Amino acid sequence: MTRPLVVGLTGSIGMGKSTVAAMFADEGVPVFDADAAVHRLQGPGGHLVEPIEAAFPGTTGAGGVDRASLGRAVLGDDAAMKRLEAIVHPAVGADRARFLADHADAPVVVFDIPLLFETGGDRLVDTVVVVSAAPEVQRARVLARPGMDEARFAAILARQLPDAEKRARADHVVATDVPLVETRAAVRRLVACLAPGKGG
To answer: In the CATH scheme, what is the homologous superfamily, with its name and number, of domain 5-194?
Structure first.
């Protein structure tokens, strides 16, 4: 049985990965968004709300998981982060398997996974695309986000593989510190190369 070519799309915080994922979707490529899956699973009535409340009391409410409370409970605490990952990753994996089954006839699909290398997710994909930008561009983008400060940015970066290492391990690199039209053209070329007959 044939299955789609699976592209792992990743990139550090502020690199423009969501923008590139949207560009793949615009080209007609099905995109599995791991972050969106987590939001859904942790939202009101989501499957992960109860187990997360049991592991981290006081971090959920009527709206599901309170991401700010949960963030405070785990950020900078490796043991707590591992406990959380042991709850979240299998559920996201099951979601991803369903997505793949639903798009079994597509020539190529994209798994948008922020911590692809860090979680060993690169073993689940056929080819890896890393989204990258210059460090000063990344910093400016991230610090412009609501609720972000230098300390939080540093804590997030500490959990992520350095950009240079991601680029070194990538099969393809898409730059986002160039005009948007150039990034879009790079994505189109990639789609044409990975799924002949699909790209425009």
So the answer is: P-loop containing nucleotide triphosphate hydrolases (3.40.50.300)
